[in-house]
Specification:
449 residues; alpha/beta; Rossmann fold; UDP-N-acetylmuramoyl-L-alanine:D-glutamate ligase; nine-stranded mixed sheet; six-stranded mixed sheet; 20 strands; globular; ligase
């Protein structure tokens, strides 16, 4: 396991276990740090708790005693734990730095880091960059919000390997010195306000991705997003734009026929198999970052002519008697569903619904022109039924869950229809994760076959 070379903290509290907390605690213990682990939901008999105690950690479960902060120099917080947590509040009040696990990974990484963030498209872009580099014979490993935890990934990496990280606002809010050598900033839309409280707080967390960058680093940014284009003027790094609206001299752009990097014609758009206008932005961002890190046009073309989408993100599931099924369970907000709907010109049956966060769905109205029917489920069923009526959609069905919704959608479909799961809601009213929800859809499609 790798060792820190310049990490000034000795007495450290890891707040929250899960994957990132466990990996952080194990890393710190392997670096001879004095570690206290605190988790509300874990029990003394949990395998993780037992193993950490064997490694030398002091593990406190079932409560969050404020006294746990006595003598602590640093708090490593699980990204999902809000800053309103009493332990976190007190740590901030008494001047204890609060970081997330990616800060630890940064201190252990020898090679280049590509960091990807944005409100939507992170996983697709992260995957595209990773595959483009692999197809270009580069050594690369992917981690962060996708795949394995960052600190777990870096232990087996050499300085010749590139680490590609998908980064959430939760992770980026807790950094001190972390910086990617190439940052990708895809877009900023209102999201996670239950955590960040205000849009400005959310933006600040996202913009942390470039706050520590220097003149030696690159910032790939969405020139079509005004809030981003304005903010990146503050960056010290080399600005590399991507845009779908105009030609740029130093970044990635597209006309009606081709995609370019600066003046280099990279690929014909008709050869790209990934659907959706929003994915064009993801592709441009990925091309820019990949080219900056040594990817070849041949490697990029191989990926773009074969990659059909990340699981649960406008993923093509199959064709049954001329009906095309797409799994977009990752669409946990209206913006993501808007983008999914814009990807298709065919008649569409939309499966939507989930956790009711109190919002209405009128922002979807302009995007429902091709929707011939809606099948709704979950806590937001009634709101979505009302939306369907306002949109003039004549066929509206209510189902008890995603599996039944899939069956109902197929029963009213016709040849050449798209059957699209794009819920516009979080999954937590019925499912533990959006992945579980998407898997249920995929299984239901396979049963129809």
């Amino acid at each position: 396991m790798k060792k820190f070379t310049n990490f000034p903290y000795t007495n450290i509290l890891v707040l929250g276990l899960a994957k990132s907390g466990t990996a952080a605690a194990e890393t710190l213990l392997a670096n001879d740090k004095k570690v206290i682990v605190n988790d509300m939901k874990a029990t003394e008999n949990d395998e993780t708790v037992v193993n950490l105690k064997k490694m030398g950690a002091d593990v406190i479960v079932g409560s969050h005693p404020i006294s746990i902060l006595n003598g602590i120099e640093l708090l490593v917080k699980n990204p999902g734990i809000p800053y309103e947590n009493p332990i976190v509040v007190e740590a901030v009040n008494i001047g204890i730095p609060v970081i997330t696990e990616i800060e630890l990974a940064y201190h252990l990484t020898d090679g280049p880091i590509i960091g990807v963030t944005g409100s939507n498209g992170k996983t697709t872009t992260t995957t595209l960059v990773t595959e483009m580099l692999k197809e270009s014979k580069q050594q690369v490993k992917v981690a962060g919000n996708i795949g394995i935890v960052a600190t777990e990934a870096v232990h087996s990496m050499s300085e010749k390997e590139t680490l590609v990280l998908e980064l959430s606002s939760f992770q980026l809010q807790g950094i001190e010195k972390f910086k990617p050598t190439t940052a990708i900033l895809l877009n900023i839309f209102e999201a996670h306000l239950d955590y960040h409280k205000t849009l400005d707080n959310y933006k600040r967390a996202k913009f942390n991705i470039f706050k520590n960058q220097t003149e030696a680093d690159y910032l790939v940014y969405n020139a079509d997003d005004k809030s981003i284009a304005d903010e990146v003027r503050k960056a010290k790094s080399n600005l590399v734009p991507f845009t779908v609206k105009s030609k740029v001299k130093t970044g990635a752009w597209a006309d009606s026929e081709y995609i370019y990097f600066a003046d280099d014609k990279v690929i014909s758009r008709q050869n790209i198999v990934l659907v959706g206008e929003h994915n064009l932005e993801n592709i441009l961002a990925a091309i820019a970052a990949a080219k900056l890190n040594g990817a070849t046009n041949d490697g990029i073309r191989t990926v773009l002519t074969t990659f059909t989408g990340v699981k649960h993100r406008l993923q093509f599931v199959g064709n049954i008697n001329g009906r095309l099924f797409y799994n977009d369970s990752k669409a946990t907000n209206m913006l993501a569903t808007q983008k999914a709907l814009r990807a298709f010109t065919q008649p569409t049956i939309l499966l939507a619904g989930g956790l009711d966060r109190g919002n209405e769905f009128t922002d979807l109205l302009p995007f429902l022109g091709n929707v011939k029917a809606m099948v709704v489920f979950g806590e937001t069923s009634e709101k979505l039924k009302q939306l369907s009526l306002e949109a003039g959609i004549k066929t509206i069905l209510q189902s008890e869950d995603v599996a039944k919704a899939t069956e109902h959608a197929y029963s009213i479909s016709e040849e050449n229809d798209v059957i699209l799961l794009s819920p516009a809601c979080a999954s937590w009213d019925q499912y533990r994760t959006f992945e579980e929800r998407g898997d249920m859809f995929v299984q239901a499609v396979h049963k129809l076959k």
